[in-house]
Amino acid sequence: MKKNVTILLSIVWFLLMFPVYSSASVSVPYKTETLTADGNIIETQTAYVPIGLFAKGAEIINPEDIYISAEDEVIVADSGTQTVKKFDVEGNLIQEYGSETLQQPMGVTADQNNNVYVADYGQEIVFKFSESGELLQEYARPESPLFGRSAPYKPQKVSIDQRGNIYIIGESATNGIIQLSQDGSFLGYYGANTLEPTFSGALESFITTQRQRANLFLREPPAAQNIAIDDQGLTYTITSGTAWEAIRKLNIAGDNILPPDITEETNLLDVAVGGIGNIYAVGNDGVIYEFDSSGNFLFSFGGSTEETNRLGLMVQPTSIEVDSVGRVYVTDQELGVIQVYEPTEFTTILHQGLSLFEDGYYVESETYWDEILSLNSSFGLAHSAKGEALYKQQSFDEVLTEFTLANDKDGYSTAFWEVRYQWMEDNLATVFIILFTLLVLRFVIRILDKKRNLLQPLRRLRSKWQQRFTLLNEVLYVKNFIRKPLDSLYYLKEYEKVSILSASILYMVLLVEYILMIYWTGFLFSDQALEEINIFFEMGKIVLPLILFIVINYLVSTITEGEGRFRDVYNGTIYSLAPFLLFVIPITLVSNVLTYNEAFIYTLSFQVIIAWCVILLFMTIKEIHDYSFWGTVRNILLTLFGMFLTVLIFFVLYVLFDQVYDFVRSIIQEVILRV
Length: 675
Fold this sequence. Notes:
alpha+beta, 25 strands, 18 helices, four-stranded antiparallel beta sheet, elongated, Neuraminidase, Serine Threonine Protein Phosphatase 5, Tetratricopeptide repeat
């Protein structure tokens, strides 16, 4: 008994002295967020946990920039001590640079020979030190006339490519990254930022000549703020103050190969590249962002704090770097520390899957995506990557499911083409036989009908139905607007071929068809998430504009000598939408068997329907009110203007009544409290 108690106490003591930490359950002072396939931000498992401060015992006052070598040696530019310090993996100081040379070191990097380059903003010089700390060379302002006499040279950040060329980020250097050779020769500007395309800019380019544009006020793109170069020689830049190409990945020609809208953040400060090509960025609010090599968003984590003892939160971040095992280092200028974050098991699995996926081992990566999805079924990138793995295995039905969950329409289109091709290969002969049989049958029936009036009983039955069911004839009159629109308009007005009831039925049909169009449109051509659709809101998008148009058009017509009655406007409006009523459902169904290669069929069909309806509506207004061509144009423009004014008035009234309601409610609450 005593022996068992002794063992139990020993186990308890061991657990208390050496607690076991699991990355999945560690409590962190921030949320980790990711994107669903639909583009919604959701909270997910913790991706990185703070594990402490790097080089805690060293004198670091204002760290400006950080660089990690291939040997995981950490180099820090510190403007507070006016030095650059190198640490080993454990955080031990092994070398100090520029203690009597540097004035305001803002950027630091190292080459393959472990030479250290420092961008000194104060002295406007980039210094090159040997590994042992000896000053080897100074790179001052280039003397080349190509650099430009008025071009600023205020080095803030520096980086080195595999050929030894030096890339300098200068303050206000809107011409691009300053590129120097090892001997200091100016090689040119590289990878200048671009301006976001705008309507005003396009209009200006269209209506002005090149000389006029040169004389106009020139808009300059913002200058890049930081730089990183990966093992493959690709250059990455970060730009603050804009969401347009805030993060760029430049090819050898200096062109960005990442999506220009990779992020909506405008406060990013620095960029780093991980071992598998993942891109990391940090904002001035302390939030860290991770993207894969193609620019797909993976995680955001971290944050800011006003306290000095919140591990994982920052006050004034300045730079970010990643070591060979995926740990993230972030410098905090205000606190004078370097925060270190370690990837959790969830993130490690994701990185392993991404590594295989990026190397083309799609099938081998499937296991990792399954594990990721078992932990977070909303992770859109995992669904997309698993879809690629299944595509390589030709499991096309499962591929469609995964790409649908990932909202990956390009992948879905490619996989659906394979599914459709297989179906056509198996069934096309049968389809042609059926069509041929139907055509032959139709031909035989027509021959027999001419000789023996085979279909005469059916024609009599149809005639009786038409005489008995007048309302049905009125509804079906809509097809005449396709074959003979002018005659149909004449009979609609003069002989009242339709009624208010038949028009109302067609308005209901229009509403039902619109809702069916939303739900039945093929995945590739639908921009709406079906689970988020509000039926009443969608119905309002059709009903309210129609009501406004009918009422305003009638009112405008009464003061512009229009002859049409309200019932004429009411009936004519819906019958002029005959192309939509008759063809929208067939086109919607066809969208389910098209890929992006045949997208023009769907888009062109809808464009033709819309144009057709507009023309019929114009002709309807003209005939109903007996206007001339320009009189009809004026009437329609006045109608649209009246609709705009009506909406504006209702909006103003809504705001006023809302304020009155809030005022009255606040008075009542005040009276209740005081009484």
